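Field: sequence (string)
Field: structure_tokens (string)

Example rows 1 and 2, in order.
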Amino acid sequence: MRLKSMESATIEDVVEQYGEDVWKLVFSYVRQEQAADDLTQEIFIKVYKKMDTFSGRSSLRTWIWRVAINHCKDYLNSWYKRKVFTEEDQHFQMMSSGSSVEGDVIQRNEDRELERAVLGLPLKYREIIYLHYYAERSIKEVSILLGVKENTVKTRLRRAKQLLKEGLVNG
């Protein structure tokens, strides 16, 4: 979606196009489904209210992701998050999938193990892994989204992969 078409776009159009990706990004930060739902809604409200500040220097997607990343970091640094315990993590761990063929079960178990390992990484590594591998952003795009140098992204990516490897081998 380009800036010229944004004048006629509704918030529903923006949510329809970017909602699922933003939710996945938010979940990678907060690791709680309910919190991800709430934060995603807050992010799109913020996007709607701040649409007039979108300058068009980046794509709309990049701008929305930057808003989402900043919002998630604010949330994680907030008093509420540090002081209030939620049981969403326990519910997430207890969810199980239905029966399927053995190969699918093994793959799902491996996927869950990798997901747990990624979600267990410190935030600065988790966000790099998510943006680069799951969201398929280039090193340069990740650098822009996070406001760090490309070499910092490469270093964090290398360290994150090392931590994942150690965690999966030892875990």
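Row 2 begins here:
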Amino acid sequence: MDARLNLFGNPVADKVLRHINSAGKAVSDSALPAATQELVKIRASQINGCGFCTDMHTKDAAHAGQSPQRLHLVAAWREATVFTDAERAALELTEQGTRIADAAGGVTDEAWTNAAKHYDEDQLTALVCLIALINAYNRVNVLVRQPAGDYQPGQFG
């Protein structure tokens, strides 16, 4: 399978993605826990059907020490006992923030209040920005049908 566009060789894509990557660096350097960041990226990517990002972020999370059990249960986090209350709040906010077109009211006050109980203002800001960024990455990759499966941890770092 080939991508519809070569995002890695196109000067316009290079310029745009460099800016998105810079925003991502601000989030990754924030106080939002790295494990939470990977869980958010995995869950949004699963919802959006982005194989490229799901492959990348599950491999990065495993490389960073996340257990296979936790990675296998991200899609079923509500029933899984391996996530903290803070991670659950982040995953709920991720789902609602990713599926905003599916709910007339967008993100519920309950989901927001729950996340705000677990994260300070800087962490919550990073979480919101991360949800927006991973959704942008997902959309680009889904639009061009970026093939998945060949990513190696650290490949883009």
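free_text_note (row 2): The two ends are 25 Å apart (CA to CA).
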